[in-house]
Amino acid sequence: MSAVSRPISPTVFAEAITELPVESLHAEAAKLQNDINKLLESNAALEAEKAVETEEGIKFLDEVIVENEGVVKSKEERIGLLKAEVEKRGQLWIHPGKKDEEDQDEAQAPAVNGSGHAEHQQEGGRDAEGGVYL
């Protein structure tokens, strides 16, 4: 028996996710995207580290970077399988990491009404100062 743990194949992964609820598929995609982001940050740090390394150290760092890139591709493939499963069920795919960015953009951009003026309304049609805008 091998001491090395290997991830399941994409085929087995695709079969396994058919049993999960849509919310779990989105959660798994978010987890995978987080892993990808960390690997990319790690690779950037490793690239910077190469500036002060010996030739042997640079070779080792290059091997680690290539290995990380392979893991990133595997995780991206799994995200693609999750997306395909969600869409196969007729549901909307929410790309992990992008929903938050869109929410932040909407929260920061002022709403504009039909006359071209930014709306300053809260619930009940009143703004923060108590005025009513129609």
From TrEMBL:
<dbReference type="InterPro" id="IPR038966">
    <property type="entry name" value="TMA17"/>
</dbReference>
<keyword id="KW-0175">Coiled coil</keyword>
<feature type="region of interest" description="Disordered">
    <location>
        <begin position="92"/>
        <end position="134"/>
    </location>
</feature>
<dbReference type="GO" id="GO:0030674">
    <property type="term" value="F:protein-macromolecule adaptor activity"/>
</dbReference>
<protein>
    <submittedName>
        <fullName>Uncharacterized protein</fullName>
    </submittedName>
</protein>
<dbReference type="GO" id="GO:0070682">
    <property type="term" value="P:proteasome regulatory particle assembly"/>
</dbReference>
<feature type="coiled-coil region">
    <location>
        <begin position="22"/>
        <end position="56"/>
    </location>
</feature>
<feature type="compositionally biased region" description="Basic and acidic residues">
    <location>
        <begin position="117"/>
        <end position="134"/>
    </location>
</feature>
